[in-house]
Amino acid sequence: MTTNLKTLATALYVRIDDSLTGTRRTGRPPRLTDAELLTLAVMQAALGSVSEARWLRYARRHLAAEFPYLPEQSGYNKRLRAANPLISRLIRTLARDTDLWHDDVWIVDSTPGECARSRPTVKRSDLAGWAAYSYCPSHSRFFWGLRLHLICTPGGLPIAWALANAKTDEREVLAAMLTQDADLLTTHPGQTIIGDKGYVSKHLDTFMAGHGLTLLRPSYRNKKPRPGEHLLKPIRQLIESVNDTLKGQLDLERHGARTPAGVPARIGQRILALTAAIWHNRANGTPITRSLIAYDH
User: Fold this and answer.
1) DSSP secondary-structure letter at 98?
2) How far, in whole angstroms, is CA 239 from its chain's centroid?
3) By C-alpha distance, which of 37, 19, 114, 116 is closest to 75?
4) Half-sphere exposure of residue 96, counting CA atoms within 13 Å on the CB side?
5) Whole-angstrom Cα distance, residue 293 to residue 260?
6) DSSP secondary structure string, 129-192?
7) What is the pLDDT of residue 166?
8) Mean pLDDT of 76-87
9) Residue 106 pLDDT class (50, 70, 90 cuts)
10) Residue 154 in contact with residue 107, Cβ under 8 Å?
């Protein structure tokens, strides 16, 4: 099978439509179905179109045959924000369809999701109270916004994700992600999770052991090295590579959202696009699982 954006969009539309079979919407059926909406959203992220207005102009000119009806920018944005639960559901559905879902090793990390830069914007932002100022050691810079916490496989498949206040402790978020998603613990008993020094905590170690999980992470310099610690660095670099894909190819840091509903939608859109690409690549036997090159033009 030829691997390109058109084949990905076709396969994704069919899979989404099948997964929504039997679900009922109240009121009048929309002219743009949920399957069409999410397929459009993935195509937008894959092509690197940050502006929704510009994307819809492109779609009307080049995708009119595939999408007979396209809403205006405000309608598209409203539908996308309302689709937050559906986006999360589809990320999990596609992840379950791949063999990577059964990997017994996960990697966890967080990365900044900047939401504003100027002080006046921060003061009037609807995200005030959720977003906050924080410092990112990896990028040696301060930022105002949220943090994206991501659990993925070494192959880059997103397993779970969450957005939290930039100052919230990474260890607290990891514990919450695991306990609030009971499906993860029941379907992956005895999982090994690899993190960095930000996850050093006796309380977290106890929590993980109590749930039958193993947390591998480096020790502080003044502590005795843990067994096998020297083997962790190249594995932990994998999630940095995943974050780089989200930022470099899917424009994570240019999401442009400014509302509590808009930020999860825009970031979820990019995680869905990454998951869809991995899902399609695994189905077609593409050598590089996380490659998006075939879909960005």
Assistant:
1) S
2) 12
3) 37
4) 12
5) 31
6) TTBEEEEETTTTEEEEEEEEEEEE-TT--EEEEEEEETTS-HHHHHHHHHHH-HHHHHHSTT-E
7) 93
8) 96
9) very high
10) yes
State the pLDDT confidence band at 236, using cuts at 50, 70 and 90. Answer: confident
First to last CA, the chain: 18
- Given a cut of 70, whether residue 221 has pLDDT beyond it is no
Spatial distance between the Cα atoms of 127 and 147, rounded to a whole number of angstroms: 13
Residue 93 burial by Cβ neighbours in a 10 Å radius (0-12, 13-18, 19+):
middle
What are the backbone angles phi and psi of residue 22, rounded to the nearest 5°? Answer: 95, -15
The tokens 């990112």 sit on which residue? 136
Exposed (0-12), middle (13-18) or buried (19+): which is 246, by Cβ within 10 Å? buried
Contacts of 154 (CB under 8 A, 6+ apart): 103, 105, 107, 235, 238
User: What domains can be seen in the chain, in order of their start residue?
Assistant: 102-251 (3.30.420.10)
Tell me the C-alpha to C-alpha distance, in Å, between residue 66 and each of 9, 10, 25, 38.
10, 9, 23, 13
